[in-house]
Amino acid sequence: MTERTLVIVKPDGVERGLVGEVLRRIESKGYRLVAVDLLTPNPATLKRHYAEHEGKPFFEPLVEFMSSSEVFAMVVEGDRVIEGFRSLAGATDPTVAAPGTIRGDFGRQWDAPVMRNLVHGSDSEVSATREIAIWFPNL
Amino acid sequence: MIERTLLLIKPDAIERRLIGEVIRRAEVKGYDVVALEMVRPGRGILERHYAQHRGKVFFQPLIDFLLSGPMIACVLQGDRVIEGMRSIAGAGDPTTAAPGSIRGDLARDWDTPVYHTLVHSSETPLAAHGEIELWFPNLPPMRVQRTFNSPMPPPPPNLG
Question: Contact, A86 vs A26, CB < 8 A?
Protein backbone atom coordinates (compact mmCIF):
# COMPACT_ATOMS: atom_id res chain seq x y z
CA MET A 1 0.00 0.00 0.00
CA THR A 2 1.35 3.40 -0.95
CA GLU A 3 2.26 5.45 2.07
CA ARG A 4 4.39 8.42 2.98
CA THR A 5 7.17 8.95 5.46
CA LEU A 6 9.12 11.90 6.80
CA VAL A 7 12.87 11.75 6.28
CA ILE A 8 15.29 14.29 7.71
CA VAL A 9 18.96 14.57 6.83
CA LYS A 10 20.25 15.93 10.14
CA PRO A 11 22.80 18.76 10.58
CA ASP A 12 25.72 16.30 10.53
CA GLY A 13 24.55 14.90 7.18
CA VAL A 14 24.04 18.32 5.59
CA GLU A 15 27.37 19.61 6.88
CA ARG A 16 29.22 16.58 5.55
CA GLY A 17 27.67 16.95 2.10
CA LEU A 18 25.61 13.76 2.22
CA VAL A 19 22.21 15.09 1.12
CA GLY A 20 22.68 13.84 -2.44
CA GLU A 21 23.96 10.47 -1.28
CA VAL A 22 20.91 9.92 0.96
CA LEU A 23 18.52 11.07 -1.78
CA ARG A 24 20.26 8.88 -4.32
CA ARG A 25 19.73 5.80 -2.15
CA ILE A 26 16.04 6.64 -1.62
CA GLU A 27 15.49 7.11 -5.37
CA SER A 28 17.51 4.00 -6.29
CA LYS A 29 15.36 1.93 -3.97
CA GLY A 30 12.41 3.14 -6.07
CA TYR A 31 10.74 5.72 -3.85
CA ARG A 32 9.60 9.14 -4.99
CA LEU A 33 10.06 12.56 -3.38
CA VAL A 34 6.89 14.55 -2.92
CA ALA A 35 8.17 17.56 -0.93
CA VAL A 36 11.55 18.91 0.16
CA ASP A 37 12.79 21.74 2.36
CA LEU A 38 16.27 22.92 3.37
CA LEU A 39 15.89 24.82 6.64
CA THR A 40 17.30 25.55 10.08
CA PRO A 41 14.48 24.23 12.27
CA ASN A 42 13.38 26.25 15.27
CA PRO A 43 13.40 24.60 18.73
CA ALA A 44 9.60 24.76 18.99
CA THR A 45 9.18 22.60 15.88
CA LEU A 46 11.75 20.14 17.21
CA LYS A 47 10.07 19.92 20.61
CA ARG A 48 6.84 18.93 18.88
CA HIS A 49 8.69 16.49 16.67
CA TYR A 50 10.45 14.83 19.62
CA ALA A 51 7.54 15.25 22.09
CA GLU A 52 7.69 11.59 23.16
CA HIS A 53 11.23 12.15 24.49
CA GLU A 54 10.42 15.25 26.54
CA GLY A 55 11.96 14.97 30.03
CA LYS A 56 14.61 12.43 29.04
CA PRO A 57 18.23 13.46 29.65
CA PHE A 58 19.08 13.61 25.95
CA PHE A 59 16.05 15.72 25.02
CA GLU A 60 17.58 19.19 25.37
CA PRO A 61 20.94 18.27 23.76
CA LEU A 62 19.02 16.63 20.90
CA VAL A 63 16.89 19.72 20.27
CA GLU A 64 20.00 21.89 20.49
CA PHE A 65 21.89 19.72 18.02
CA MET A 66 19.01 19.55 15.56
CA SER A 67 18.54 23.33 15.61
CA SER A 68 22.29 24.07 15.36
CA SER A 69 22.38 24.18 11.58
CA GLU A 70 20.49 23.34 8.42
CA VAL A 71 18.59 20.10 7.93
CA PHE A 72 17.08 18.66 4.77
CA ALA A 73 13.50 17.54 5.39
CA MET A 74 11.50 15.58 2.86
CA VAL A 75 8.37 13.56 2.35
CA VAL A 76 8.99 10.31 0.53
CA GLU A 77 6.30 8.13 -1.01
CA GLY A 78 6.01 4.50 -2.02
CA ASP A 79 4.70 1.10 -0.98
CA ARG A 80 5.92 0.29 2.55
CA VAL A 81 8.25 3.29 2.44
CA ILE A 82 8.19 3.74 6.23
CA GLU A 83 9.69 0.32 6.80
CA GLY A 84 11.83 0.56 3.65
CA PHE A 85 13.53 3.79 4.62
CA ARG A 86 14.18 2.56 8.18
CA SER A 87 15.86 -0.41 6.57
CA LEU A 88 18.04 1.83 4.36
CA ALA A 89 18.92 4.03 7.35
CA GLY A 90 20.23 1.16 9.46
CA ALA A 91 20.49 0.73 13.21
CA THR A 92 20.39 3.76 15.49
CA ASP A 93 23.97 3.38 16.74
CA PRO A 94 26.05 4.34 13.71
CA THR A 95 29.26 2.67 14.90
CA VAL A 96 27.74 -0.78 14.55
CA ALA A 97 24.95 -0.17 12.01
CA ALA A 98 25.25 -2.74 9.20
CA PRO A 99 27.51 -1.92 6.25
CA GLY A 100 25.37 -1.01 3.26
CA THR A 101 23.05 1.12 5.37
CA ILE A 102 23.32 4.92 5.46
CA ARG A 103 24.46 4.94 9.08
CA GLY A 104 26.70 1.91 8.67
CA ASP A 105 28.49 3.38 5.67
CA PHE A 106 28.73 7.02 6.73
CA GLY A 107 28.15 7.29 10.48
CA ARG A 108 30.32 6.75 13.51
CA GLN A 109 30.66 7.90 17.10
CA TRP A 110 31.86 11.48 17.64
CA ASP A 111 32.68 13.01 20.98
CA ALA A 112 29.33 14.86 21.15
CA PRO A 113 26.47 15.02 23.68
CA VAL A 114 24.03 13.26 21.34
CA MET A 115 24.58 10.53 18.82
CA ARG A 116 25.06 11.85 15.29
CA ASN A 117 23.33 9.34 13.10
CA LEU A 118 22.78 11.41 9.94
CA VAL A 119 19.12 10.69 9.24
CA HIS A 120 15.68 10.41 10.78
CA GLY A 121 12.83 8.36 9.33
CA SER A 122 9.33 8.05 10.79
CA ASP A 123 8.91 4.80 12.71
CA SER A 124 5.21 4.06 12.10
CA GLU A 125 2.20 5.22 10.12
CA VAL A 126 0.98 7.22 13.12
CA SER A 127 4.36 8.96 13.52
CA ALA A 128 4.62 9.61 9.79
CA THR A 129 1.24 11.34 9.69
CA ARG A 130 2.05 13.38 12.78
CA GLU A 131 5.56 14.35 11.63
CA ILE A 132 4.55 15.25 8.08
CA ALA A 133 1.91 17.61 9.54
CA ILE A 134 4.60 19.27 11.70
CA TRP A 135 7.19 19.76 8.96
CA PHE A 136 4.96 20.21 5.92
CA PRO A 137 1.69 21.67 7.24
CA ASN A 138 0.61 22.74 3.75
CA LEU A 139 1.12 19.43 2.01
CA MET B 1 36.48 33.78 -5.06
CA ILE B 2 33.30 32.35 -3.59
CA GLU B 3 30.38 32.62 -5.93
CA ARG B 4 26.94 31.10 -6.42
CA THR B 5 25.21 29.41 -9.30
CA LEU B 6 21.68 28.29 -10.07
CA LEU B 7 21.16 24.61 -10.80
CA LEU B 8 17.87 23.35 -12.19
CA ILE B 9 17.24 19.61 -12.07
CA LYS B 10 14.82 19.14 -14.95
CA PRO B 11 11.68 16.96 -15.22
CA ASP B 12 13.57 14.16 -17.01
CA ALA B 13 15.92 13.80 -14.02
CA ILE B 14 13.03 13.78 -11.53
CA GLU B 15 11.17 11.19 -13.59
CA ARG B 16 14.30 9.02 -13.81
CA ARG B 17 15.00 9.38 -10.06
CA LEU B 18 18.34 11.07 -10.49
CA ILE B 19 17.89 14.01 -8.09
CA GLY B 20 20.15 12.45 -5.47
CA GLU B 21 22.79 11.46 -8.01
CA VAL B 22 23.02 15.03 -9.33
CA ILE B 23 23.16 16.62 -5.87
CA ARG B 24 25.65 14.00 -4.72
CA ARG B 25 28.00 14.94 -7.56
CA ALA B 26 27.81 18.64 -6.66
CA GLU B 27 28.48 17.91 -2.96
CA VAL B 28 31.34 15.50 -3.63
CA LYS B 29 32.94 18.11 -5.89
CA GLY B 30 32.94 20.26 -2.74
CA TYR B 31 30.11 22.73 -3.29
CA ASP B 32 27.48 23.66 -0.71
CA VAL B 33 23.75 23.55 -1.32
CA VAL B 34 22.50 26.85 0.13
CA ALA B 35 18.89 26.75 -1.06
CA LEU B 36 16.72 24.08 -2.61
CA GLU B 37 13.08 23.84 -3.62
CA MET B 38 10.86 21.44 -5.47
CA VAL B 39 8.98 23.62 -7.94
CA ARG B 40 6.28 23.45 -10.55
CA PRO B 41 7.11 26.67 -12.41
CA GLY B 42 4.67 28.56 -14.61
CA ARG B 43 5.32 29.53 -18.21
CA GLY B 44 6.18 33.11 -17.19
CA ILE B 45 9.21 32.33 -15.03
CA LEU B 46 10.53 29.83 -17.59
CA GLU B 47 10.20 32.34 -20.41
CA ARG B 48 12.13 34.90 -18.35
CA HIS B 49 14.75 32.32 -17.46
CA TYR B 50 15.32 31.48 -21.14
CA ALA B 51 14.67 35.03 -22.45
CA GLN B 52 17.89 34.94 -24.50
CA HIS B 53 16.46 32.10 -26.60
CA ARG B 54 13.10 33.74 -27.31
CA GLY B 55 12.24 33.45 -31.00
CA LYS B 56 14.48 30.47 -31.65
CA VAL B 57 12.87 27.28 -33.01
CA PHE B 58 13.53 25.29 -29.85
CA PHE B 59 12.18 27.95 -27.47
CA GLN B 60 8.57 26.74 -27.13
CA PRO B 61 9.46 23.01 -27.14
CA LEU B 62 11.99 23.73 -24.38
CA ILE B 63 9.42 25.58 -22.27
CA ASP B 64 6.86 22.81 -22.88
CA PHE B 65 9.37 20.20 -21.76
CA LEU B 66 10.10 22.09 -18.54
CA LEU B 67 6.37 22.42 -17.86
CA SER B 68 5.92 18.64 -18.14
CA GLY B 69 6.68 17.82 -14.48
CA PRO B 70 8.16 19.08 -11.23
CA MET B 71 11.74 20.36 -11.08
CA ILE B 72 14.28 21.01 -8.36
CA ALA B 73 15.77 24.50 -8.24
CA CYS B 74 18.84 24.98 -6.09
CA VAL B 75 21.60 27.44 -5.37
CA LEU B 76 25.11 26.07 -5.03
CA GLN B 77 28.00 27.97 -3.53
CA GLY B 78 31.78 27.69 -3.66
CA ASP B 79 34.90 29.01 -5.35
CA ARG B 80 34.42 29.06 -9.16
CA VAL B 81 31.20 27.07 -8.77
CA ILE B 82 29.72 28.49 -12.02
CA GLU B 83 32.54 27.11 -14.11
CA GLY B 84 32.80 23.94 -11.99
CA MET B 85 29.14 23.01 -12.32
CA ARG B 86 29.20 23.63 -16.09
CA SER B 87 32.19 21.31 -16.20
CA ILE B 88 30.53 18.45 -14.29
CA ALA B 89 27.22 18.94 -16.17
CA GLY B 90 28.98 18.21 -19.48
CA ALA B 91 28.23 19.26 -23.04
CA GLY B 92 24.77 20.27 -24.26
CA ASP B 93 24.40 17.23 -26.54
CA PRO B 94 23.95 14.39 -24.06
CA THR B 95 24.72 11.59 -26.53
CA THR B 96 28.33 12.72 -26.87
CA ALA B 97 28.87 14.59 -23.57
CA ALA B 98 32.08 13.33 -21.98
CA PRO B 99 31.91 10.19 -19.84
CA GLY B 100 32.27 11.22 -16.20
CA SER B 101 29.97 14.23 -16.67
CA ILE B 102 26.34 14.19 -15.51
CA ARG B 103 25.03 14.22 -19.08
CA GLY B 104 27.73 11.92 -20.44
CA ASP B 105 27.04 9.28 -17.81
CA LEU B 106 23.29 9.58 -17.41
CA ALA B 107 21.67 11.16 -20.49
CA ARG B 108 21.16 10.43 -24.20
CA ASP B 109 18.92 11.30 -27.11
CA TRP B 110 15.30 10.12 -26.75
CA ASP B 111 13.89 11.43 -30.05
CA THR B 112 12.24 14.38 -28.32
CA PRO B 113 11.78 17.92 -29.71
CA VAL B 114 14.53 19.22 -27.36
CA TYR B 115 17.40 17.37 -25.71
CA HIS B 116 16.58 16.04 -22.25
CA THR B 117 19.78 17.21 -20.58
CA LEU B 118 18.84 16.54 -16.93
CA VAL B 119 20.22 19.84 -15.60
CA HIS B 120 20.67 23.52 -16.27
CA SER B 121 23.53 25.41 -14.67
CA SER B 122 24.14 29.16 -14.99
CA GLU B 123 26.61 30.06 -17.71
CA THR B 124 28.23 33.25 -16.38
CA PRO B 125 28.33 35.30 -13.16
CA LEU B 126 25.89 37.75 -14.72
CA ALA B 127 23.48 34.96 -15.68
CA ALA B 128 23.85 33.35 -12.24
CA HIS B 129 22.98 36.62 -10.53
CA GLY B 130 19.84 37.12 -12.64
CA GLU B 131 18.72 33.50 -12.41
CA ILE B 132 19.14 33.30 -8.62
CA GLU B 133 17.13 36.51 -8.28
CA LEU B 134 14.43 35.04 -10.52
CA TRP B 135 14.11 31.66 -8.76
CA PHE B 136 15.04 32.65 -5.18
CA PRO B 137 14.03 36.30 -4.75
CA ASN B 138 14.18 36.03 -0.95
CA LEU B 139 17.54 34.29 -0.57
CA PRO B 140 19.73 36.02 2.04
CA PRO B 141 23.17 37.21 0.91
CA MET B 142 26.21 34.95 0.73
CA ARG B 143 27.70 33.64 3.93
CA VAL B 144 30.81 31.80 4.97
CA GLN B 145 31.41 28.50 3.25
CA ARG B 146 30.07 25.64 5.33
CA THR B 147 32.25 22.68 4.51
CA PHE B 148 35.72 24.20 4.73
CA ASN B 149 36.84 22.14 7.70
CA SER B 150 34.34 19.32 7.48
CA PRO B 151 35.60 15.81 6.88
CA MET B 152 35.15 14.66 3.30
CA PRO B 153 32.51 12.01 2.87
CA PRO B 154 33.88 8.58 1.94
CA PRO B 155 33.40 7.47 -1.67
CA PRO B 156 30.00 5.95 -2.35
CA PRO B 157 29.87 2.19 -2.09
CA ASN B 158 29.17 0.24 -5.22
CA LEU B 159 25.51 -0.66 -4.93
CA GLY B 160 25.72 -2.94 -7.96
Answer: no
